[in-house]
Design brief:
1 helix; single chain; 64 residues; alpha+beta
Length: 64
């Protein structure tokens, strides 16, 4: 089964929380994301960005 179809699986949420714990900064703007709930964790690419638009803009193209 495709992992994208398992969005309500507790194991997938645990994986997402682990990725957030390793990378608590937005990979677009570089600013810290204060809580897991404010993060949009992309499990398949191990990428963490703000759930909404970044407040501080992008620091550089190397992060986005």
């Amino acid at each position: 089964m495709d992992i994208r179809a398992r969005y309500d699986d507790p194991a997938v949420e645990e994986l997402a929380r682990s990725i957030y714990a390793l990378f608590p900064r937005c990979m677009k703007c570089g600013e810290a994301i204060p809580t897991f709930e404010e993060a949009d964790v992309r499990v398949l690419t191990n990428r963490v960005v703000h759930r909404g638009p970044c407040d501080h803009g992008q620091k550089s193209d190397e992060h986005g």
